[in-house]
Amino acid sequence: MTRWDLAGKVAVVTGGAGAIGSAICKGLGQAGAKVAVVDFNSGVAAKTAGDLARAGITAVSLAVDVADEKSVRAAAADIAGRWGSLDIVVNAAGNFIRSSLLETTEEEWDRTVDTHLKGSFLWAREAAAYMIPRRFGRIINVSSEVAVTGGRYGIAYAAAKAGIIGLTRSLARSLAPHAITANALAPGTTDTPLWRGGLTEGPALEEARAAKSKGVPLGRLGDPEDFVGLVLLLSSEEGSYITGQTIHVNGGAVMA
Ligand SMILES: NC(=O)c1ccc[n+]([C@@H]2O[C@H](COP(=O)([O-])OP(=O)(O)OC[C@H]3O[C@@H](n4cnc5c(N)ncnc54)[C@H](O)[C@@H]3O)[C@@H](O)[C@H]2O)c1
């Protein structure tokens, strides 16, 4: 059991089937929250929810494209109808397309910005409608260190992650009168399928890990578990005075 008590809370984690999202689902569930695993990868989302249920956590999976307004609205209504509230939203769905400026197509730009930025907006707006009457809500948007460093590859990704910081500040101002907080979590490079891209275990991946780790004062890449504690703090009663912040969790790689 963790030190955070989220008993009775209802949490949604988008990208809940992914590496960071599923670690966050487990952490929220172990703290007592009911967890909706939202992802467009329905098979892995169902497996994640099944694993949570076997660990004694109340969980459900929903197949949702976060960039699709109708699906997001229907999923939010389903969760609130099923469990009576929608208290915590973690926007962790994401894609990464490794394109330079001249390579980035309009379609890649739209897909990336829609997934990260529009998806976070849609979930925040839909969830806020359920949070406002209850005067409780926590919105945690996953940004990235590249929001502040920029990147030569993943132009749309860095722009979308920077946009998430601006969105989070506006959410914090809009929702503060209702006692709802909104914060951005900005992870550093983390060893997940999204970061590995096409690389499979072998010398090339080892080399990439070693090269990236060199720039991290704490000497290693992030692990999905590294973000769970902050999400629990921000979700808890103890986090009620933290809003509008971007919190970097990156082993010191970027000190912003
Ligand atoms: N891995 C890193 O180095 C790193 C660093 C900073 C930030 N992040 C961010 O952390 C979050 C989680 O990434 P991860 O590394 O765990 O990657 P991941 O690929 O393991 O997980 C991402 C999940 O998002 C889902 N997804 C993608 N597009 C979606 C959509 N339109 N609708 C619904 N689900 C969708 C995928 O199916 C996948 O399950 C992302 O927002 C990512 O940008 C990752």
Describe the structure.
The protein is α/β, with parallel strands linked by helices and 256 residues long. It has one domain (10-249): Rossmann fold, CATH 3.40.50.720. 45% of the residues lie in helices and 15% in strands. Strand 1, helix 1 (19-30) and strand 2 (34-39) form a beta-alpha-beta unit. The radius of gyration is 17 Å and the shape is globular. 46% of the residues are buried. The site of nicotinamide-adenine-dinucleotide (NAD) has 28 residues, from helix 1 and helix 7. The site of nicotinamide-adenine-dinucleotide has 28 residues, from helix 1 and helix 7.
How would you sum up this structure in a few lines?
The protein has 256 residues and is an alpha/beta fold.
List keywords for this structure.
Rossmann fold, 7 strands, globular, binds nicotinamide-adenine-dinucleotide
* Order of SSEs: EHEHEHEHEHHEHHHE
- Measured by DSSP, the beta-strand proportion falls in 5-15%
Shape: globular
Gross CATH architecture: 3-Layer(aba) Sandwich
- Specify the CATH homologous superfamily: NAD(P)-binding Rossmann-like Domain
Proportion of helical residues: 40-55%
How many distinct beta strands? 7
Low-confidence stretches: none
Tally of individual domains: 1
Strand order of the largest sheet: 3-2-1-4-5-6-7
Spatial gap, N to C terminus: 32 Å
CATH fold annotation: Rossmann fold
Rg from alpha-carbon coordinates: 17 Å
Question: Average pLDDT across residues?
Answer: 97
Helix tally equals 9
The helix/strand class is alpha/beta
